[in-house]
Amino acid sequence: MTQTQHRILLVDDEPNLRKVLGALLRQQGYEVHAETDGAAALARVRSAPPRTFDVVISDLRMPNLDGIGLLRALTLHEPNLPVILLTAHGSVDSAVEAVKLGAFDYLEKPFDRDQIHQIVQKAIATRERSGPSAITAQPAEELEDPCTHAGMVGRSPQMQLIRETVHKVAASPSTVLITAESGTGKELVARALHLGSPRRSHPFIKVNCAAIPSGLVESELFGHERGAFTGAVSSRPGRFELADGGTLFLDEVSEIPKEIQVKLLRAIQESEFERVGGVKTLRVHVRLIAATNRGLEELIKDGSFREDLYYRLNVVPIHLPALRERIEDLPLLVAHFVGRCNERLGKAVQGLTPAALAALEHYAWPGNIRELENLIERMVLFASDAWVDEDDLPDAYTGDNHAAASPAESSLRLSLNAGPGLGALSNDADDPRHIRLPLSSLGQDLKEAVRAGSRLVEEALIREALAKTDGNVTRSARALGISRRSLQSKMKELGLRESVVDDPTKAPASDPNRGAT
Prior knowledge:
5-stranded parallel beta sheet; 17 strands; elongated; disordered C terminus
């Protein structure tokens, strides 16, 4: 028997191993506490006072959180807590790598009684020499730009504003509500907020509320005790416990059943809750970030979302624009995804030609950045040349097969103007396609007024097509649905022939990011 009864946390998903090894350790004089997986063990260490446990013995392979994941988390939470890993013969290489990551040692199954005692004693001696643990240890280096580190790409005014907001609020504990269409990158913004905060060394736990059956939402968020419901054969911590000290990201928060919303509200306001089937009140310190692609105000009106919860979530609102609303970021996004796909697929694609980029800039992107990423992966995977050209794109992304554009992109607005003259294209920088028809035209013959208006509309459409194709007459004619010769004739009639560049054989630019700001 050892003179002092040291505490050991034993973590393994196999009941027989917990029983046998636990009994052996108790015979050697240790106080043994057991958990079934890494997630439960991590929650137990975090909820206990510092230096509660002297050694953690954990299996290498477990569900929820394996031994390596537990080792990484404990290294951040309590760096001086020795972790000994259990491994089968075929996993020795993994255990050796774990030692390189900071594990104290490893034990190979089947166990030798004396070897166990010797390694545990060495671990305890090391623990006692280490002194107090730095429970709130932070990385020495500060992240210069958490947005870039999180993978956010874009220099458009909208994205610059979001970056500024992230930098201002990341360090605060305030709740953030991210609203956006699906596929816009809400999780990246949540990660940037986490990485820019003092909580960056603690867990970032994400939950897709829409993917959890309604009957299990409460258990997933708050955990449950053994026997709380059919199938609850052991106690299990919820996501709030797992995120203690870090950040909890609730995606699609609008899908949380209303009967659970009141418990979520209390957890946010009071930082406390009870597990399902439990009576003990648990306290956690969690920064909550929520996201939704639905209008919560409308859900409040129809009674499916609590108004008080909405105001508690919406302390710091961040709205992510759809890709079509920041299309100037498309070249940067394309270059980013091409680089990632090249690395993952072992390809060497240089990028997209200007013609291909121009075609994608005209597309409405209903699936947003997720759709763009999937398209680029497909293009890189099947690319036979260094550059992806417009002809290589699927039909849906070119010509007349484009998805329906937004009203602002597909229409030309007309208004009456009291000024003199037949009317002209507006010089308003905020609306370059705004066409003004003179009030005096109403006093003319109807046919003459319509003819004058038609000429202005025709000129506006041709100018816009030429502008969006960099003056390429061939591609402009294709976009307008007329022959190249007809377009040349129209341009001559409108006096546009000398003001554009006709270069149907335009070579691809060397830089796929042209036009990026």
